[in-house]
Design goal:
- The protein folds into 2 domains: 2-20 and 81-215 and 258-289, von Willebrand factor, type A domain (Rossmann fold, 3-Layer(aba) Sandwich); 44-79, no CATH class.
- 32% of the residues lie in helices and 26% in strands.
- It is built from 8 helices and 12 strands.
- It has helices at residues 10-16, 63-69, 102-119, 146-157, 194-203, 216-219, 244-268, 281-291, and strands at residues 2-3, 8-9, 44-51, 73-79, 84-90, 123-129, 133-141, 180-186, 206-214, 225-230, 237-242, 271-276.
- Strands 7-6-5-8-9-12 form a 6-stranded mixed sheet, sandwiched between helices.
- The radius of gyration is 21 Å and the shape is elongated.
- Mean pLDDT is 85; it is low at 26-44.
């Protein structure tokens, strides 16, 4: 099996199937199914049966019930740590920058996380946003849902939205109420108040993971001399001379911005990870996500 949209092969997908998304705090949700937790003492107990439907995992079939009734039933479980996962994918104009683009890398990462979650019986919703939440795929479950989730993510990657405005995350409550896990993927290159946006998700009962995707050119600019720079979202033009002094000032500002994100997430109990758009997602990123407690 291969995927032409995101470039995943069967060997990579088999590898990520061994992973799961972790809760870093007690989160109770209405769904049922076995999932992992980083907390000690998390329990998984039998809750109920339901009829088997196409796409369900045969490992959960109750074969004793099948032998008695000649019908396929799935065993459902009740766990303390079940929650709906919502992936907030920033597809604003600035995400189209870089080679490969930040949008593509963000989309590939979102697709991987969705695949892991769905393979582990979690439910996954996708919220595409720029200046507003302009696309919302309600919670999906089961392996059979992977194609529709991936198509939604691919459409967002290919459809730039207006400028990033974290204030729109405050309206998440209009789409869903109750606890869950929110994974926010963005370049965080915005004048909007990202702190209040992330806090609003926390206030809505979401356990937040913030993933910043930056291009190599943004992390370590190589341009020199006179340039006319065009804002990817506002269209504003600025003529600048990229001198060593100006580039040092830019790097200092980026470092302060990153430090602010790191400090905020640490104080809020949220996970934070910065990745480059040219990173090998099959390599260090999965290990980094494990290191910050997002994957197990």
């Amino acid at each position: 099996m291969t995927d032409a949209t995101f470039g995943f092969d069967s060997a990579f997908l088999r590898r990520v199937e061994r992973l799961s998304l972790l809760n870093r705090q007690a989160v109770r949700g209405p769904a049922a199914g076995p999932r992992s937790s980083s907390r000690h003492g998390a329990s998984v107990e039998f809750a109920d049966f339901r009829n088997y439907v196409t796409g369900d995992d045969f490992r959960r079939v109750d074969w004793k019930a099948f032998a008695r009734l000649d019908r396929l039933f799935l065993r459902l479980y009740r766990a303390e740590d079940l929650a709906q996962i919502t992936i907030f994918l920033d597809h604003s104009g600035s995400m189209q920058f870089g080679e490969p683009t930040k949008a593509l890398t963000a989309g590939r990462l979102a697709a991987i996380l969705a695949y892991i979650a769905l393979h582990n019986y979690d439910t996954v919703a996708v919220a595409g946003w720029g200046d507003q939440i302009d696309r919302f795929l309600p919670a999906q479950s089961g392996n059979a849902s992977i194609p529709v989730v991936w198509r939604t993510i691919a459409d967002l990657v290919d459809t730039p939205a207006p400028a990033t405005d974290f204030a729109c995350l405050r309206r998440y409550g209009a789409y869903r109420r109750g606890p869950g896990i929110a994974i926010v993927i963005s370049d965080f290159m915005t004048d909007s108040d990202w702190r209040s946006g992330l806090r609003s998700l926390r206030a809505a009962g979401q356990e937040v993971t913030a993933i910043q995707v930056l291009s190599p050119e943004e992390i370590d600019p190589t341009m020199r001399g006179d340039w006319k720079l065009v804002d990817a979202e506002s269209g504003r033009e600025t003529e600048v001379t990229l001198s060593p002094h100006l580039l040092r000032s830019y790097k200092d500002a980026l470092e302060r911005h990153t430090s602010a994100l790191v400090d905020f997430c640490r104080k809020e109990g949220s996970a934070f990870l910065q990745i480059r758009s040219d990173v090998d997602l099959a390599g260090t990123v999965l290990s980094d996500l494990q290191a910050v407690g997002v994957l197990g």
